[in-house]
Specification:
CATH architecture: Orthogonal Bundle
CATH topology: Farnesyl Diphosphate Synthase
Number of domains: 1
Shape: globular
Number of helices: 14
Helix content: 55-70%
Order of helices and strands: HHHHHHHHHHHHHH
Radius of gyration: 19 Å
CATH class: Mainly Alpha
Largest sheet: none
CATH superfamily: Farnesyl Diphosphate Synthase
Length: 303
């Protein structure tokens, strides 16, 4: 299911990129206090939708019906209706923040679109044909989180939005390449048909959970793609001032570090799932401190 993100990580502890909605800041101690209620309300909305889509024993059709009801509730409170008794703890706070901050409703609906897409694709055993299709999924599963946060900060120029999208997509992709040993047995396939064909891999081979020279090359190529996205978006972290900018630096470094961990396994993530631990935090902090713009305006955020 969508795990986004700037899929920012919780920075009160070293981030585990698989934690529940792990790439969301969840009103961390680096976030300005005035924004914490809005961020917490958005997170509660996303986490509850994630639970509807992914937890328990409901069928795919039952999950889709619940998400449809969840969407209807979102639209109702956005139009000024009081929250219904079904999810008052979610839509009560969200209604306040929707109107206080004029949150873009479409971004919240995009997240629900992505949850629904994951359910349908798993149910129907559908696959992503190419990276363009996978990026379109990330546009709705990950990028809305960064755009919602930028909205709270009052940043809406095209360059910043594009860099936010690159960070969020990079974090989502990092999560995908971290998790094939978890996702594939559950019927979730994020390696595209085009990439499998390029590396001469049959999809059934992935289901065996065995790492081969070809699958390692596939993962390595996709890791490079995720890293390039994070590097593309990294300059945004230097534009945002104060604690929020430092949080975003650490978010980027959390994504880069999990990619390092994948590489340390020689990209053998069909059989193992790398994790971040306490020893990774000093590396992330050091790299965050060293993030500076290069002469060409880019940043290498992975060194």
């Amino acid at each position: 299911m969508p795990r986004v993100t700037p899929s920012p990580t919780r920075m009160t502890a070293p981030p585990d990129v698989h934690a529940h909605y792990e790439n969301f800041p969840v009103a961390s101690w680096l976030c300005p206090p005035r924004l914490r209620p809005a961020i917490a309300a958005i997170y509660g909305f996303a986490r509850t939708a994630d639970d509807i889509a992914d937890e328990g024993d409901a069928t795919a059709d039952e999950r889709l019906a619940q998400l449809a009801a969840f969407r209807a509730e979102l639209r109702a409170v956005a139009a000024g209706a009081p929250p219904s008794p079904r999810w008052p703890g979610i839509f009560g706070p969200l209604a306040v923040q929707l109107h206080a901050w004029r949150l873009p409703l479409q971004l919240l609906e995009d997240l629900l679109d992505a949850f629904e897409q994951d359910i349908r694709m798993t149910r129907d055993q559908a696959r992503y044909p190419d990276r363009t299709a996978l990026l379109d999924y990330c546009r709705r599963s990950a990028n809305p989180v960064g755009r919602l946060l930028l909205h709270l900060y009052g940043i809406d120029d095209a360059a910043s939005l594009a860099r936010s999208d690159a960070i969020c997509t990079g974090l989502q992709l990092a999560n995908f390449w971290q998790d094939p040993s978890v996702d594939i047995p559950r019927g979730r396939h994020y390696f595209t048909d085009a990439d499998l064909q390029r590396f001469g891999i049959a999809r059934a081979e992935l289901a065996t959970g065995r790492d081969t020279a070809a699958t390692r090359a596939l993962v390595a190529d996709n890791v490079a793609w995720a890293r390039a996205c994070l590097n593309e978006g990294a300059p945004l972290a230097l534009r945002i001032p104060g604690r929020a900018g430092w949080e975003l630096r650490l978010v980027v470094q959390g994504g880069q570090r999990i990619l390092d961990r994948i590489a340390a396994l020689d990209h053998g993530t069909l059989s193992r799932r790398p994790k971040l631990g306490a020893s990774d935090l000093p590396v992330m902090l050091w790299r965050a401190l060293r993030m500076k713009p290069a002469a060409n305006g880019t940043i290498r955020a992975d060194t």
